[in-house]
Write the structure tokens for this entry.
Amino acid sequence: MKKLVVAILVVVVAMFLGWATYPYWTAGSAEVTVTHVENKLMERNGDRQDVYLVFTNDGTYRNTDSLHYFKFNSSDIQGKLAEQGRFKISYYGFRIPVLSVYKNITKAEKIG
């Protein structure tokens, strides 16, 4: 019984550490051309959340606030990206189309 409790505890700690650190080991940057931006209302577990989507030549990204990066200016970034054109973006996360999971933009700088 004691081994089972220890095993469960190890799994829970590993899952928490994975959740807490994945934004840092999946981080990246890219130079992209923004072609379109959109606001999408998503519903999860009864909660509604506005999600800004950014369509680029490199794929689709989301732009939402992030506690991991202390990012609370997603609407400002979306306004900048709405101008379209070339941007250098920083992001984290995975793109999983089947689950509607997108990489999240953390910074955007216009380059052209």
About this structure: The two ends are 62 Å apart (CA to CA). The chain has one domain: 28-110. The domain at 28-110 is CATH 2.40.50 (OB fold (Dihydrolipoamide Acetyltransferase, E2P)). Residues 33 and 86 are 4 Å apart (CA to CA).
